[in-house]
Amino acid sequence: MNYRRSGRLVDMTNYFLxxxxxxxxxxxxxxxxxxxxxxxxxxxxxxxxxxxYKQIGTITTTAGAxxxxxxxxxxxxxxxxxxxxxxxxxxxxxxxxxxxxxxYMMDVIGDPILTQQLGKIFAxxxxxxxxxxxxxxxxxxxxxxxxxGNHLNVxxxxxxxxxxxxxxxxxxxxxxxxxxxxxQTMSLARRSLKPNSNVLIIDDFMKAGGTLRGMMDLVKEFxxxxxxxxxxxxxxxxEEKLVNEYVSLTKLTEMDSKQRKIKVERGSIFDNPFSxxxx
Length: 279
Known about the structure:
Elements: H1 5-18, H2 26-33, H3 37-53, E1 57-62, E2 68-73, H4 77-91, E3 97-98, E4 102-103, H5 106-109, H6 112-125, E5 133-137, H7 142-152, E6 156-159, E7 170-176, E8 183-189, E9 198-206, H8 210-221, E10 225-235, E11 247-256, E12 261-266
Parallel strand pairs: 5-6, 5-9, 9-10, 10-11
Antiparallel strand pairs: 1-2, 3-4, 7-8, 11-12
Helix pairs in contact: 1-3, 2-3, 6-7
């Protein structure tokens, strides 16, 4: 179909937003809109300028016969700070206190718009890490992991405590729960993760980091590497963490069940600020 420029710009923008981190040949757009590649290049320049000005992301161009254009999502620092501050305030509701030093967070994880926004922050943070897959532990981390995977355009591998017959053969390991000091088992379907993958681990809540350490060991069983670790909320306490390098969006710094008091602050993602909106 032969679109006018205004129509092409709208349709191409929508395509880029729905296909992040995917290299798209110019010929694809040229054939789709029955337009010259020179016109398509001008359209892409307009979209790129707006994306970068609004810090939605950037569009990179690769020359050559196998080249094309790729949209890489980014986030705006001020918008991110505002979003995280609002999340901290939301999490400080004393009615969220659960036994064992946990927070009720299902309403946050179940908010599709918020989860997509949080997923984009992680995706922007690890956009240069060449992530091949996102891994998470069932079940609460699944929505956030899929949001990150969506913005990175990579598959999601779900680790479980129990074996499901529908997943076929599995790889299982034992790990020590950091908070409960108990030996537990986690498993991942062999078909869920390709060997030699670069894996980004995402979790909703971390106390001592036993579950994360277990997933790190599981990644090694697939002869794969860790691209990074992202945590929605970490509990700050005197207990030594079993994981050293990770990025958290929020920190639970105080929880007093008797006084019904919760204190949540910005996470470690702001300790060593990455280049928000820049490549």
